[in-house]
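Same chain as my last thread, 275 residues:
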Amino acid sequence: MLKKITLTVATVFALVACGQHDGATQTSASAMESNVSGSLIDRINQKGTITVGTEGTYAPFSYHDASGKLTGYDVEVVRAVAEKLGVKVEFKETQWDSMMAGLKAGRFDIVANQVALTSPERQKTFDKSEPYSWSGAAMLARTDETRIKNLADIKGIKAAQTLSSNYGEMAVKAQAEIVPVDGMAQAITLVQQKRADVTLNDELSFLDYLKKNQNTGLKIVWTAGANEKLGSGLIVNKGNDEALAKMSAAMLELQKDGTLKKLGHEFFGQDVSVK
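reply #2:
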């Protein structure tokens, strides 16, 4: 999910996509301090410490578990990359709205927060590693739904959506009958109550919901094609080509040795590192 517009389930998700989503957490004082001296590649080559900007309130990507430990898919991917590189990692929890500015200002070396880096403006300033997750639009319906095989099939079908989201726009374009909602939680409830037939949102949001909630009576009936999905990667400032290459190589190793697949199943119930 990428940093993009999505709908969230109140306390269950703290999600929304990316780039892909809007987050909210208090920036710590340490996150506002200048980064340690030396270049990113120097710290990697010297087996030093790299600093990582993340939200810490964006489950299941970056959040605190019941014990208070910072964890999440993105967090554990970073830890695995750091282990491959032989470096230590320090996370600096930061509001999403100020995260990319903090990276540009050198408050941390990397951002790991489901960023797809799709806007031309950001692409001029930042670079992205090999993706570690892929996501696109998906559709959720009741398990007894048999009419829907693709997006075109929702013409005339009741779709619970917020009209302000890109998913609402998709449903309107597909000529669905829109049932207005405030967010993903309400949309899911209406589908379960048969007051709507489907709802569209980010695939990773749905996977997270279905993994955390058993016996929902719901299933994913459609997902966007591979060529329509966006990949999230580690984000660095431009000019760090050598460091970025090392991180991308480590990411490919993690995919090859099954680490990313394992983490995907842990947090989503399936491998999200491939299209």
